[in-house]
Design brief:
CATH class: Mainly Beta
Helix content: 10-25%
Strand order of the largest sheet: 1-15-14-19-17-16-21
Strand content: 35-45%
Number of domains: 1
CATH architecture: Beta Barrel
Shape: globular
CATH topology: M1 Pyruvate Kinase, Domain 3
Oligomer: single chain
Length: 302
Amino acid sequence: MNASPLPVGDVSAMIARLFVYPVKSCAGVELQQALLTETGLALDRAWMVVDARGEFVTQRERSRLALVRPQLKTKELVLRAPGMLALHMALDAVAQPAMVKVWDDVVPAYDMGDVAAQWFTDFLSLSEDGTPAPNAARYRLVRFDPQHRRLSSLKWTGGVQALNQFSDGYPVLVISEASLAFLNDKLIAAGHGAVGIERFRPNLVLSGLQAHDEDRLALMRIDAGEVPVLLKPVKPCPRCPIPNIDPVTALSSPEVSDTLQTYRQDARVAGAVTFGMNVIVVGGVGAVLRVGQALSADFDFG
C-alpha cells in the first residue's frame, strides 16, 4: 500500500543532508539514510569522552576532538585522527558499567576499556601544535546505556517525554541551508571566509526554506513511508563557542560568534545567540530518513 500524501502546509522543504555524530563532539558522519529511533538518529551521540572524574569533555575544553573522524561500519565503529593508528571497536562490544555526567545529568554508561582510553588520552594530550602538553589529563570513552531514559526538558517539550543519549539535551537538531547561506553572506561582507554546516553539527539540513524559517515551524511531517515521521521543533539552539572552531584544523577564531551576535539574539532563550532548532520525535520511530525526502509544515507564530 502506498503512503498517503502529506498534508499541504505553509512550507514545503526537502532533506538535503543527514548527519550523525557517533562520539559526542567528534566529527560527524554524513549519511544518505538513517534510522529514526526514540533518541534521534541511530547511533547519534551514543559514545562520549569523559575525564578522570567521569565528566563529559567536548570541543569547548579540547578542540582537538574536532579532528577525530568516526566511520560507521556494519559491525564496528572506527575512529581515526592525525598521527594515530585507527581505533576499531565492535558495536556489540562488552564493556564495564560506569556512571558519568553530561551537563547536569548523571547517567549509567559502559566504559569502552583501556585501549580506547589510552587512544583518547594520547591524542588529546597533544597541544594544538601537536607537541605533548604538560600535566596531561587522562580520558576515557564511554557508551550510553540504552536502558536508561534521559529526558529532554519537560518545560520545553510541553510535557512530552523525549529521549536522548549523550546529546546536549534534545534528540534532533535541524538547520536550513538558507540560514547558513545568510550567515555566510554576512561573513563574506565583513571580509571573512564562508563556513560549512559542519560547524553547527545538525542532524537534518533542509533545503527549500527561507533563512531561519526553521525557527517558526510547528509540527514537521516527513514522507518516509506508510507512517509519516512527525518531528516537533521545541527550542531554539543556543550557541556556545564551538562554531568558531574550524573542523579541519581545530583552531578557533571568533568571527562566527561575533557575526551571529549582531543578528541572532533570541528573546525565547533570554537573549542567547541561537542557530537552528532542537526537535523531538513525536511519531515515526523505526522509519528510515533519506536525503531527498519531502517535508511539510505550518508556521507557528504563537
